Amino acid sequence: MDVNTIKSLVRDIPDFPTPGIVFKDITPILQDPVAFCFVIEKLAEYTKAVKATSIVGVEARGFVFAAGLAHNLGMSLVPARKPGKLPFHHITEEYALEYGTNAIQMHLDAIKPGEQVVIVDDLLATGGTAVAAARLVERLGGKVAGIAFVIELDFLHGRDLLKGYDVFSLVKF
């Protein structure tokens, strides 16, 4: 297994969720146990390198990779969820998407002060979701050790919005 194989498993879905958007579908990676394990191993190498102590997974597809990573490394998993999904006291951060706006939330007790966190999501597009997650971590007193993605869409320049953060992406389009 290698990065080129992972890249070849990502399929394009035109005009989803809105006309003009080409959605990157990671389902084939999830359906291939060897590919999925390879992705988790690469994310684990990165997470160890930046000396993180916990994982933040961004809803929804980021949860899949973050959960596998947290299990692999024996680390805590903190969900960054869409509004209305968390049952406990929480904070909210709004962000812009490639095709609209949204917000994410975290429980107030999700991150301990000084905790070293890696934020995990499936895709870096414009960077808005990742910046919102980073702001939540920082507002709770944590430190963003890094931000990891399976896929990066280079042409959207999302990495520019993440200046000052250590950013890792496994494959780029």
What features would you describe in this structure?
The chain is of the alpha/beta class and 173 residues long. Strand 5 (90-97) and strand 6 form a beta hairpin. The mean pLDDT is 96. It is globular, with a radius of gyration of 15 Å. It contains 6 helices and 9 strands, in the order H-E-E-H-H-E-H-E-E-E-E-H-E-H-E. Helix 3 (33-49) crosses helix 4. Strands 4-3-7-8-9 form a 5-stranded parallel sheet, with helices on both faces. It has a two-stranded antiparallel sheet with strand order 1-2. A two-stranded antiparallel sheet has the order 5-6. It has a single domain, classed as Rossmann fold (3-Layer(aba) Sandwich), CATH 3.40.50.2020.
Layout of strands and helices, then pairs:
Elements: H1 3-9, E1 11-14, E2 22-25, H2 27-31, H3 33-49, E3 54-58, H4 61-73, E4 76-80, E5 90-97, E6 100-107, E7 116-124, H5 128-139, E8 143-152, H6 158-161, E9 167-172
Parallel strand pairs: 3-4, 3-7, 7-8, 8-9
Antiparallel strand pairs: 1-2, 5-6
CATH class: Alpha Beta
Structural class: alpha/beta
Q: What is the correct CATH architecture?
A: 3-Layer(aba) Sandwich
Nearest-integer average pLDDT: 96
The main pleated sheet reads as:
5 strands, parallel
| Cα-to-Cα separation, first versus last residue | 19 Å
**Using DSSP, what is the number of strands?**
9
How many distinct folded domains?
1
- Compute the gyration radius: what is it? 15 Å
Count up the helices. 6
Low-confidence residue ranges: none
| CATH fold title | Rossmann fold
The topology string of helices and strands comes to HEEHHEHEEEEHEHE
> Proportion of β residues?
25-35%
What percent of residues adopt helix (DSSP H or I)? Answer: 25-40%
Oligomer: single chain
Reading side by side through the largest sheet, how are the strands ordered?
A: 4-3-7-8-9
